[in-house]
Amino acid sequence: MGLLRGVFTIFPASRDNGPMNNKNKHKYGVSKMGYNLPAGGQNQVGYNSYSRDSYAIPKKRRKWPFVVLAVVLVLLLAAGGVAFAGVVYMNSLNDKLQNNIDDELKATLSSEAVQPGDPFYCLIMGTDSSEERRESGAYGDTFRSDSMILARIDPRQKTVALVSIERDTYVNIEGYGPNKLNASAAFGGAPLVVSTVSTFAGVPISHYASIDFDGFKDVVDALGGIEVDVPMEIDDADAGGHVDAGLQTLNGEQALILCRARNAYEEAGYSGGDFYRAANQRMVIGAIAKKLMESDPATMATSIATLCDYVTTDMSVTDIVSVANSMRGIDTENNIWSAMNPTISAYENGVYIEYSDNEAWRKMMTRVDDGLPPYEDEKRNVNDGGTLDGTVRDNS
After folding, report:
1. Residue range 309-329: mean pLDDT, rounded
2. CA-to-CA dists, residue 391 to 10, 213, 261, 366, 388, angstroms
3. How is the chain split into domains, by residue range?
4. Residues 6 or more apart whose Cβ sits within 8 Å of residue 61
5. What 3-state class would DSSP assign to 260?
6. Which of 3, 41, 9 minimizes the C-alpha distance to 282?
7. Measured in whole angstroms, how far is the alpha carbon of residue 228 from the centre of its chain?
8. Burial of 365 (C-beta count, 10 Å sphere; 0-12/13-18/19+)
9. For residue 206, with 0-12 CB atoms within 10 Å meaning exposed, 13-18 middle and 19 or more buried, which class applies?
10. What secondary structure does DSSP assign to 174-225, as a single string?
11. Cα(167)–Cα(304) distance, rounded to whole angstroms?
12. What local confidence, expressed as pLDDT, does residue 211 receive?
């Protein structure tokens, strides 16, 4: 259960998405919950459990990064937990996990074989293929990634570094020139994203994983529902409907509404609906993880099989189980680190752009590649005694 605790305590940095006429360099402080907060400790929504608490007025925030991380960690835990289920079952999961992994993507991943126990990098991407995204048509039939996380996993040292990369980061895309990182997904799909991130970070990427968040509904239903204490009544037609406030068991449809709700908060007078949506997503994924790990083997197996319908990776189940087993005993309080690529934010011609702070980025990735925490001050990267009541307190 040690690694499961890590699911509830790792969060990527938040940022101010408000319009800016001038570039504004990000600086980070630390909170009791493991957030990397902008210096000054402005209020944030701090849910990392399923308890009810009043929302604080936040700045806007990207939608999906925590969900990506949590789903991957839950998948690792679950795969390790059902390793006893048998070779036939595991092979059936392989077919699901490796669907749509083509030769071009395999060729883009590092050709250097990862030996057992050696550290490796995995690029984790999250997408939302909901009807809302389909109808937007912003990138035709190609869905942009809602989040990207570059993970360095070191089984021998039992450390994990997770670096969220802003999708609006301005980078050079081979064959297309300078553009937002997220545009690489539209231009060349996963292979171009992998090669672009690898070049930008200066490290080889050995594995790839993509998660479609639309799968939440089926996973929750496979578990028989999840218990969540909803902080306020949700009435959001764009998100799909209504969810009552209070402690309750949510079915898959209700959980998905909670994960997508944004307008309800703005209509209630809270700015930054995306941030509240992210807080709800953390509640839901935490409840999924808790229910999954408490399930009987049959329910767990069914839920994992459902989850695999929405996860694509070049890794086999055997690979995942091997990594999960090698990471047993990891010190989740001190050896799982999270960070975000340092950027300079700009709002130009009605468009948000993140310009890379190249010197700070180089220093960060040098530390990560050396097996060290991304920041020199390790206290910025660990959960130093946070509570599970959703409270965020400045500790800078």
Report:
1. 77
2. 15, 26, 21, 33, 7
3. 2-380
4. 14, 15, 17, 272, 274, 275, 278
5. helix
6. 9
7. 20
8. buried
9. buried
10. TTTEEEETTHHHHHHHHHHHHHHHHHHHTS---EEEEEEGGGHHHHHHHTT-
11. 29
12. 75
**Euclidean distance between CA atoms 278 and 46, whole angstroms:** 10
Q: How many residues does the chain have?
A: 396
Question: Residue 337: is its pLDDT beyond 50?
Answer: yes
**Which comes out higher in pLDDT, residue 183 or 21?**
183
Q: Looking only at Cα atoms, what is the longest distance across the chain?
A: 58
Judged on CB neighbours under 10 Å (0-12, 13-18, 19+), 303 is buried
pLDDT band at 152 (very low <50, low <70, confident <90, very high): very high
More confident residue, 54 or 126: 126
Q: Please name the amino acid found at residue 162.
A: L
| 108 Cβ neighbours under 8 A, 6+ residues apart | 190, 191, 194, 195
Least confident of 146-155, 170-179, 272-281, 286-295: 272-281
Domain 2-380 falls under CATH 3.40.630.190: yes
Note the pLDDT tens digit of each residue in 288-308.
Answer: 766 766 777 677 667 767 777
Of 160, 216, 230, 223, whose CA–CA distance to 390 is shortest? 230
Q: With 0-12 CB in 10 A as exposed, 13-18 as middle and 19+ as buried, what is 85?
A: middle
Rounded CA-CA distance 73/332 in Å is: 12
Task: Taking residues 16-30, report their average pLDDT.
Answer: 35
